[in-house]
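Figure 2 data, in text form.
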Amino acid sequence: MIANDGSHSLLTLAIGLATVVVFMGVCMAISVRVQKLTVVDTAWPLGFVLVAVVSVFVTNAGDGMPAPQLLLLVLVTLWGLRLAAHLYHRNSGKDEDPRYAELAEADGRSFAQVALTRVFLPQGIAMFLVATPVMVGMNNLGVVGWLGWLGVAVWAVGLFFEAVGDWQLAQFKKDPDNKGKIMDQGLWRYTRHPNYFGDACVWAGIWLVAASSWAGVATVVSPIAMTIFLTKVTGAANNEKGMRKSKPGYDEYVRRTSGFIPLPPKKA
């Protein structure tokens, strides 16, 4: 295990929390102004990039950037900017996401109240929780060891599944002949949610990089929380509710295809 300045990690966490609060507050104001909760989709990955950049400034003493710090900054930035660009392109010029529209309508309160209590506040809390390896890991000193490079490998697998899965789905939707059909090609043949599986791997990899110190090990709640969010809360579970209603034959796809971890499809 390499060294980590525990007291400085607490300072980084505190400033990181303040960063998340301010950032999500600004994004919520934009959301209320344009009356679209979908704003939070693009804000989500950008928030992690901002936390990583702020953490660099908090922890860097001006005598060069330690290797673990540089590695975490690169991993988070590459992941965050790619996902933000994808989500912005996907949502740009379109109406409110049906999931958010249904949420706002069912809640019955004002748009601002729904935005605060149902979207930006819970996602802000989740962002801080998931970003803890980034903030704590920025205080790791020394060189990147085998555990850190294992983290890079897991992160790379995750980015592959997330980016390729998103690209394959976008190409599938571009073809008008596929309207109303189920995407069961490419990576989607082996898992119903390659992008969510990839996201979980990305954050498991980032945690492994931070886990080169004992303080970083303690942030294991991050990949656990992210996986729970993706599979049980806002990710796959929420997505599949709508798919079962709108896609005939989706139940058959569920029977033959793994829900999360990529596996060979089952025979009909």
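Caption note: The chain has twelve helices and no strands.
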